[in-house]
Amino acid sequence: MTHKALVIAVGGNALIKDPKEVSVASQAEAVQESAEHITSLIAAGYTPVVTHGNGPQVGFLLRRAELALDELPPLPLDVLGADTQGATGYFFTRSLRGCLAQQGIEREVAAVVTQSVVDPEDPAFAAPSKPVGSFMSEQEAREHEEKDGWSVREDSGRGWRRVVPSPVPVEIVECEVIRSLVDSGCIVVAAGGGGIPVSREDGRLSGVEAVIDKDLASALLASELGVPDLVICTAVEQVYLNFGTPEQKALDTITAQEARSYLEEGHFGKGSMAPKIEAALNFLQAGGQRAIITSLEALQDAVAGKAGTCITN
Ligand SMILES: Nc1ncnc2c1ncn2[C@@H]1O[C@H](COP(=O)(O)OP(=O)(O)O)[C@@H](O)[C@H]1O
Ligand SMILES: NC(=O)OP(=O)(O)O
């Protein structure tokens, strides 16, 4: 892989500026801000593969589809995941092209509809864990649980959310296409929402009902591409020990072994920071050099080793 390629994962929640204001305009604005930060890195000589979450967005689409059931047939989660890849990929390519043009940088930009293979026997299908859609009060969540059969869970002190199955991705189907595009200098948006969940049987792919964790998919893509750095951008600039308590302590540079110990000690939110740490550890174990967790605002400084939390072997 030529160019200074790296994978940058942008969280679905980081693409929502205000959970109470989820209009298309507001989502496009959040992507625009992300694109501005990513463009600074491109201007500094990097070729990012941008991956993004879709937890809020896929949940909104699922709810829309359910509310329209009197008129229209249901939509399965793989198709809704594909829809979020399309819309978010469109926002990203539109914004990135605009930002690059403004800086006089001539680079191609493309979003690749990406499928992630999962094991249909993954135990995650029987234990929904991926938060999607809006935040609710516990009372609203319990009502949906009873009336609509939703699985619901508290999400990192931010409210209650619907949860859906989230099997582990084992292969990124379009990896070689993404590699060719990156090798040609193209800025690629890929593996949105962790990739569209599919299973493979006798060489044939079929969609499955799930939402894949985009950090795990990003780590897999980064290691399959063989890039040295995986950067996970989220709402916090650093990872903390004792997060949310008066004793919270920011982590600058830690080893994979230290990260694993802190994970086992329960320092990282289940379904929020913990999967990011697990993804970072997977990437380092597969030969990656640096896994960085930071905010979009601190992206450039973090890649330069001056901000964020950096995990190395
Ligand atoms: N130990 C921790 N350090 C920092 N943030 C944490 C920690 N544990 C939980 N979190 C929470 O995890 C959030 C990131 O997870 P999430 O919002 O699910 O990610 P995404 O940006 O991918 O949607 C942070 O904004 C923070 O609220
Ligand atoms: N698919 C996924 O992991 O989305 P979020 O980043 O929004 O949780």
Automatic annotation (TrEMBL):
Q: Name one Pfam family in it.
A: AA_kinase
Q: Which Gene3D superfamilies match?
A: Acetylglutamate kinase-like
Molecular functions (GO terms): carbamate kinase activity
Q: Does the keyword Kinase apply?
A: yes
CDD domains registered for this protein in UniProt: AAK_CK (cd04235)
Q: Which residues cross the membrane?
A: none
Q: Which domain of life is it from?
A: Bacteria
BP term (GO), one: L-arginine deiminase pathway
Q: Which UniProt keywords apply?
A: Kinase, Transferase
Q: Name one GO cellular component term.
A: cytosol
Q: Where is the composition biased (Basic and acidic residues)?
A: 139-153
Positions of the UniProt region annotated as Disordered: 128-153
Q: Which residues form the Aspartate/glutamate/uridylate kinase domain?
A: 5-295
What are the coiled-coil residue ranges? Answer: none
Q: Which reaction does it catalyse?
A: hydrogencarbonate + NH4(+) + ATP = carbamoyl phosphate + ADP + H2O + H(+)
Similarity-based family = Belongs to the carbamate kinase family.
> What's the protein name?
Carbamate kinase
Q: What is the lineage of its organism?
A: Bacteria, Bacillati, Actinomycetota, Actinomycetes, Actinomycetales
